[in-house]
Structure formats: structure tokens, C-alpha cells
Description:
Layout: E1 2-5, H1 7-23, H2 27-44, E2 51-53, E3 57-61, E4 67-74, E5 77-85
Parallel strand pairs: 1-5
Antiparallel strand pairs: 2-3, 3-4, 4-5
Helix pairs in contact: 1-2
Amino acid sequence: MNYSFHPAAEAEFLETVGYYESKVPGLGGAVIEEFEALAALVGESPKAWQIESQPDIRRAPLHRFPLSIVYRERPDGFQVLAVSHVRRRPQYWLGRL
């Protein structure tokens, strides 16, 4: 199943990768790898994660990093609405719906 980024979510993801890479070389790549692995799981079973906001916005947490993929299912895959920190600015991404 394919996924696409909301433009703001893509910028947010790239900023996050840059942040981790600036802290420890190679850590940005680890964020990308974990994101892609989780995105593959979400693509296989998009309804497997908890609903974050109605009607069907879901959150899938990364394991190694304090981040979650906030997404909504689409007919051809899913759209990433945010790559959000689990403890900061809850639901700031609502304006992207």
C-alpha cells in the first residue's frame, strides 16, 4: 500500500531527521529506517492502530524514537498528516485535515 505526505508533514519529517542527524551522525538514517518499517506495517493493516481523532485519523508510534505517524486511510493507501512528538503540542495537526 502506498503513502503520501501532507506537505507540512513532509517538511516536519525532514526537519526531524535533520535534528537527529545533527545530534548523532547516523541517527537521522535510523529515524528514516524506523519510519519506513512502520509505514510498511501501517500500509498492510491501516486499521490496526488507535483512533486519534474522529472520524478515522490514527496514530502509530515509532518504537525507538518519541514520535508517531498520524495518518488517515485513503483508497490508494494512506496520507501522513504529521510525524509528531508524542509529548508536545497534542493535535496541532488538526488544521491539516
